[in-house]
Amino acid sequence: MQTGAEVILFPKHARQPQQFKQWLASILRTFQEHLSRQGLNLTRQREEILRCLMSADKHLGTEAIYDIVKKKDPTIGRATVFRTMKLLQECGLVAEVSTANGRTKFELKADRPHHDHMICVECGRITEFQSRMMERFQDEAIRRQGFVALWHRHEIFGRCRACMKKR
Does residue 88 contact residue 31 with C-beta atoms inside 8 Å? Predict the structure, then answer.
């Protein structure tokens, strides 16, 4: 079980300064190509929003992202954050994560293996996990039904260890 950070970044070397720069450059190229296809530019504000997500150690909602980037760039508006998050989702760099209170948070999806989430209904903590066994069961069910899966999202809502100790 994790302590502290919610988000486990992959590749792990992404937290090292020189490799982070290379990783950032690669992801920025992907985003820039997507924007170009839409007839848009990679602005300083869009880049700052992406940097915010890449350096986050927890899942962030649009308001939290706005608060973080606003400190670095007071000219940025909520609408810019909202629209940029949509663009990042469209190009596959960012994914939504549900919360117990129905609000949406986001996580960087680029260069990260598939994982699922356990969401605490009391403190809101989101814990990432991977389970080969769960994936095998899903794959078998899909195969038996002749279903063609395009994607899936597995979220388990409950109480984390820390909140259970408080009860």
Answer: yes
